Amino acid sequence: MTRKNTWARLAVAMVLCLPLTACKDTKTLQENEQLKAQVAELQKENGQLGNDLETMTAARDAATQENEKLKAEVNQLRQQALLGEAARSQNESLRKQLNFIDSPQFPSDYTAVNTRIIGWRNEFDERVVIAAGRNAGVHQETPVMTNDGLVGSVTQVSPTAALVTLLTDESSAVQARDQNTGATGGIVRHGEGEGSLIVDRITKDKLVKEGDVFVTAGTRSKQYPSLFPPNIPIGYVISVGQSDTAPFKQIQIQPFVDFSSLDAVTALITKKKNPQAP
Question: Is residue 140 part of a domain?
Fold first, then answer.
């Protein structure tokens, strides 16, 4: 009798445990489904964030490319406008003359040697080394520029490289003229601030305005012997002043070339000889 009662009690206990086990399993399954749903939602959000990031990156890259393209177009148009204005002004004068003999003209009498800057003399020196020398036709006083404007001139040369003294160096100077008003006699040289340029020796009777563009004059003097071809853009006027006692205007210009980020430059090579003063 006792053994029968024991088996009966065990059977009852097992029957009672079955619903509890089923309830526990059902709860676990529900929790698993909730977790799966949360994971799926997080994956969906993460995927959307990834798509948004890719879209933003693509938009940024496209904007950067468009910006560089527009800068190049502006530089090209500015160069064309300056050269066109210079040509019109020059032609009006030359038409009146026959058998005109001139120094090399930019850009028609020059061949471009595009090269890369391979070194700076030191961090305080306004001179750079380019990867083109005598073997490429580069010689002393060869003008160097970029698409933006004048960079400087070659001051030392070897068969495979050359040293270029920048326009911002204290030893540099170039005769220049106002492209807009025709004011001549100016000497562009290093200013007081880093990378700044001034135009000296423009007399007070000549008209120069803010925004005017200065270009190389293409003339040579005993004091400034390096001859740059005419009409290479240098910079635009950012301030003009004069005093009662000084004979010349105080003119500051912003160079078109960004000298802090020079990478590739163009050396201007010509086979036409520069005239030498007697």
Answer: yes
